[in-house]
Amino acid sequence: MKASTRQAFIVVDLGYGDAGKGTMVDYLTRKHNAHTVIRFNGGAQAAHNVVTTQGQHHTFSQFGSGTFVSGVRTYLSRYMLIEPYALFNEEEHLQQLGITDAFSRLSIDRAAPVTTLYHQAANRLKERARGDNRHGSCGVGIGETVADLLEHGQSVLFAGDLPDKQTTIKKLRFLRNAKWEALREIRHQLKGDPDAYDDLQIFTDDDLINIAADNYQYLIELVTLTDDSNMKNLFEQSGTLIFEGAQGVLLDENYGFAPYTTWSTTTPKNAETLLNETNYSGEITRLGVVRSYMTRHGAGPFVTEDPTLRKRLPELHNATSDWQQSFRVGYFDSVAHRYALNVAKTIDTVAITHVDRLAALPHIQICDSYITPAPQEKIDAYFVLADGTRSTIISNIKVQSMPTFSHQNELARSLIDCKPMYTAIPHGERESDIESTIEYIEQRLNIPVTMTSTGMTAQHKFERESNFKSKHTL
Question: Is pTM beyond 0.85 here?
């Protein structure tokens, strides 16, 4: 790429998250000498694991996953929810790894909402009150922050408020009182629950507001606050921008399988909006990331889940947690990924990660369709029948142009009852099995696979010449 040219990569996960977006961002940053990584959705719940060739490991949450590369900046856009305490903790770990200038390379849009300790406590209390019907929340307050933003607008706390201590205190008091009132029934339900005690106490400790305001103010002194004019200048620089998405398209706030979703737009939409606002004229590549098998951290539909695979495919950086609970594993699901591609609309190419782990599977198989016990009216509402088959076999999930919560909730219920139908990839030499798998995925997803990953570091990323040509629409 010539020094005077500009290009942008938009990296999104086409599954339920954890497909390896961070490690792809790290690779693209190095390969294309990117100057900035832009976060365009989500918040402190992101967990993007990057391992360097020297063995350093960091789970990127709010800093961009290109931060290991010297000089690369992070820009937290107005679509990103910032959590100051988590930023301090993350920067401290980067310091331990020898990255001593992370804060000086961090810019935050003034319009970025702030996730506070009250959002986090309310989130955890609500999830705890759900008992066995948890939604799979990360417990870090993302949904509560977005809900308050929608309900209270400018009364919530934004990054641009943080330099003014009195404004911060006023807004923190407002949020504390609003959340406390909203928790009235749940407080009664959880009264006497020792596990809820600490979160309930957060609302009664007046000193926490002043402490938080001081800490927030200190953070802003270490980073750069930006606005739309700064963003335009950034996007006009020559070189490469990397837009790093969070979570996965199957968890999208509108198109995911409610209520097991995130409060965030996980498609390329926000990134495209930022580019369009600045009349960006550089080349744009939208990269969808998938694993060679499926995973899901937390509750919700997972048609191809196979608990026997968990021992064969252990996770180094994703474990059972108190909030999301178990990390689930299953075979590759073409139906779910085709739905994600249709939701995302503009994906240009796909990267497949964890290709090396196909060798751990007892056999390689791809889910091409589902069989459902749903009555015909439900099939008509939510699914597309497979051609030339009986009426219980479905090949695609319908995408609503304007999905409602109730529709997506009923879709989730229907998916829970679906069973996978598999196509086995013929066995031969293991290397040819893997190439056959990639080619088969290209055909089933109707999109070229141009990158693969066989390990954790940038050296394990490979660009692939694809001969696939799309012949039909999904």
Answer: yes
